[in-house]
Amino acid sequence: MNIKNYMKILRPKQWMKNFFVMLPLFFGGELFNGKALLAGAITFLAYSFAASSIYCFNDIHDVDDDRRHPVKCLRPIASGAVSASVAYVLMFICFALSMLSMLFLPDYALQTGGILLLYWLLNLAYCARLKQYAIIDVCIVAFGFVLRLLAGGFATHIPLSKWIVLMTFLITLFMSFAKRRDDVIRMERTGEAPRKNTIRYNLTFINQAITITASVTLVCYIMYTVSPEVIQNFQTDYLYLTTIFVLVGLLRYIQLTVVDQKSGDPTKVLLKDRFTQLVVVAWLLTFLLIIYVLKG
Questions:
Q1: Does 129 have pLDDT greater than 60?
Q2: Does the domain made of 1-159 have the CATH classification 3.40.910.10?
Q3: How much is the pTM?
Q4: Which of 52, 166, 266, 272 is geometrically suited to a Cys-Cys bond with 10, CB 3.0 to 4.6 A?
């Protein structure tokens, strides 16, 4: 039994995406609320187990395509290191752990569990069929992050601003288009489409889609920081100052996508690109300073 191969299937590094369930705590000003923080942590674990379950199914379903891919052929199932039957067992164990985690939520376990189940079923449909359709594929990925956000809101009992929901969808849609650009570049270099729907994308379309989503994301963030409800909630009108970090972050990601052509894995970008990390940390610290220290 090779634990490393199992970890490759479960992809724990990708769990960082599930920190989106903690955003209601952050934007709701409840980051130091112990009960809400515990509920958010439980929801994070539940989504992480659900995501690993989906990764198992994806690798089982895509095994033939993965074997023809220059990088994905090294995945445990595609390489033959782990059998499909073992992967199915891992898939259902992770799903069971995900749903059982809901029992430990202090409140709104049924609603949070319902959103989690919807997320799981939607992603199974995505892996099995829906990812073959261009535009629909990136929209489903972005909607998956919205579901994370909604689950975090229910679990922590924190109302969500419409701006937060819109920004979550837009920023993840932006990153999804950037990731698809990497597929288009690879298709142009090798003559073979990494995904079945890659032929429905080209650089002109992808570049325009990235520009549009980045622009709307920035405008949406500005509208969030100056909206009366947000100013009243945080008792400060200085949040607009954090816009500079959002703008720089978007420009850096576009640079990585268009100039460096390193947008294939958003998680890897966040884990390895020091510039991006500095911008995110600066934004977080500035936001925290404004809403927790300088409010009022």
A1: yes
A2: no
A3: 0.91
A4: 52
